[in-house]
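wait is this the right file?? whatever heres the structure
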């Protein structure tokens, strides 16, 4: 297999379509399809499943593509250093649950990096997708949490994908509410106090369960539930509908002024927030900078 074929495979996976990938790579569709078949024959695996809507990676294809990305990235670095006069284009990717502090740490990483050419990716996504992104080496690391209720299931998933979880810090559960919420003046809250109000949570797709949920106590029965996929939307719904969500309580005030408050939840549970990494992979310099920024936001939580 050739480097060009690996580039073709990566483009097909990103586009989800051989037709669109062929356009992007300025190659005919039959030639691209043959290139894929050649790699599959040589690797003795099926990389893509063909379907009516396009193509989807198989489990073996996901793993193969993770290594393919590494090969292509290393070759690009080599070419930048020894062939091109331009500086190397550095790539860094984080897949994370929907945490404000994770996004802010990412901003700090970009500011501190300061080089001319880079491709940085912040992927706020579902819990299962974070695991897959790290497994397939699409991202350098993933950010999520463990707690007593989800640990057994998630650690089993980590083990199956040959991943390791590294704890960064612990946080007690807090409730996020709008400043004018009827409960906003309370010093502490219970799950019973929250019953009359809409619970806001992030969509987890086919893996919707308390084990993959981003919110603590998601298995508690509620009468009003709203699921969303966007972090900005959850703030709008807190403000507009008196909704609430349960998370770590780490939420810098300067982002939304005093419009959102964080109140301790009087329930026995702890969030252990950390990062996922491939078992055979060491932290890169950029990963270390990002993790340091995460820890700073925890220490400077205001």
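ok assuming it is, sequence goes like this
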């Amino acid at each position: 297999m050739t480097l060009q074929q690996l580039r073709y495979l990566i483009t097909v996976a990103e586009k989800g379509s051989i037709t669109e990938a062929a356009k992007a790579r300025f190659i005919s569709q039959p030639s691209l399809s043959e290139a894929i078949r050649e790699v599959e024959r040589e690797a003795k695996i099926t990389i893509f499943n063909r379907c009516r809507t396009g193509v989807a990676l198989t489990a073996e294809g996901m793993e193969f593509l993770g290594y393919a990305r590494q090969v292509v990235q290393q070759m690009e670095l080599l070419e930048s250093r020894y062939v091109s006069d331009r500086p190397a284009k550095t790539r860094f990717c984080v897949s994370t649950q929907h945490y404000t502090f994770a996004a802010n740490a990412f901003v700090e990483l970009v500011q501190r990096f300061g080089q001319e050419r880079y491709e940085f990716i912040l992927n706020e996504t579902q819990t299962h997708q974070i695991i897959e992104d790290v497994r397939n080496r699409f991202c350098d690391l993933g950010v999520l949490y463990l707690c007593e209720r989800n640990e057994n299931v998630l650690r089993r998933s980590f083990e199956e994908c040959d991943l390791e979880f590294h704890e960064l810090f612990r946080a007690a559960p807090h409730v996020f509410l709008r400043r004018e919420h009827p409960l906003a003046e309370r010093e502490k809250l219970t799950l019973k106090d929250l019953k009359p109000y809409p619970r806001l949570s992030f969509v987890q797709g086919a893996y919707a369960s308390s084990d993959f949920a981003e919110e603590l106590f998601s298995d508690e029965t509620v009468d009003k539930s709203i699921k969303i996929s966007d972090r900005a939307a959850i703030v709008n719904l807190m403000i507009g509908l008196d909704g609430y969500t349960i998370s770590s309580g780490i939420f810098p005030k300067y982002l939304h002024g005093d419009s959102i408050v964080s109140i301790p939840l009087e329930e026995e549970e702890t969030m252990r927030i950390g990062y996922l990494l491939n078992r055979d992979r060491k932290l890169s310099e950029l990963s270390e900078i990002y993790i340091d920024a995460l820890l700073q936001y925890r220490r400077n939580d205001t």
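DSSP finds ten helices and twelve strands in the chain. so i think its the right one actually
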